[in-house]
Amino acid sequence: MTLRLRIALGSIGIGVVVLGLKVAAYWLTGSAALLSDALETIVNVASALATVIAVWFASKPADSNHPYGHDKAEYFAAVLVGVMIVLAAISIFYAAWEGLTDDRPLTYSLTGLGINALAALINLAWARHLIRFGRRNSSPALTADGKHLMTDVGTSLGVLGGVGLVFITGWEPLDSILAALVGILVLWSGWHVMKESVSGLMDESASEDTLTKIRAMISDHGEGALEAHDLRTRQAGSATFIEFHLVVPGKMTVETAHDICDRIEEAIADGMPGARVTIHVEPDHKAKHSGIVVL
């Protein structure tokens, strides 16, 4: 089992523990705002399960039907997480409405608030770990899961402060207003998760920082070549696909040109684990006198 898959499985366990704590906090207080916080955690568990499936599928090696690998499976999971977040927001809005129409009084419980605060701290620690690991290993599914949890932490802290204010002021409609605000924040989070995932499915280019790094490695390790142009990249989960044309002297042997390509590919592989490089070699009369100048 890969480390990435173990991290994804850990999200399910963390989600179940946090869900149990938040449900307990709701039972102790009867707060619609705390119920909305628990409803979002149900989505966390479901999205963690979807992430596990996607990470497992994305780790499968390339085959005859998928010669470029299965890395994009993680983007589908991230889109699914976004959809689940939207569904959670709808449930939260419903809970807020019920809170306004239900005459049941709230029960002040310091224990309930403390339990919810503990759940938020657990989520905070795990969300930071997911985001760091996901970015370091180019995993959009784990990164999206971490960002969602981080949003959950923010809303949990806001809800805790608001519910405490309800108990202090005695103005119970504020509880339902807080629940509705949580729903709006959750919707905003879902929009961003889906937007980033769709960019990956549409073969968006690597970031400008990554492109600068690639250009530098081609320039520094392409000794013997003249220039490189038509650099194209696309991101697919943990894999970065890189293509470019490398111009060499027309009389250079195929073996020598191949050695230059190997040197560039090795440099990129060392600097960008998971990169998959395709180089098209051209003679000097194909030079565009633009792009990347080889040092």
Automatic annotation (TrEMBL):
Residues 207-283 form the Cation efflux protein cytoplasmic domain. InterPro entries: Cation_efflux (IPR002524), Cation_efflux_CTD (IPR027470), Cation_efflux_CTD_sf (IPR036837), Cation_efflux_TM (IPR058533), Cation_efflux_TMD_sf (IPR027469), CDF_Transporter (IPR050291). It comes from the Bacteria. It comes from Roseibium aquae. The chain crosses the membrane at residues 7-29, 41-59, 75-96, 108-128, 149-171, 177-194. Residues 12-202 form the Cation efflux protein transmembrane domain. NCBIfam families: CDF. This is Protein p34. One of its GO terms (molecular function) is cadmium ion transmembrane transporter activity. Keywords: Cell membrane, Membrane, Transmembrane, Transmembrane helix, Transport. The keyword Transport applies. It is a multi-pass membrane protein. It is found in: Cell membrane. One of its GO terms (biological process) is intracellular zinc ion homeostasis. Belongs to the cation diffusion facilitator (CDF) transporter (TC 2.A.4) family.
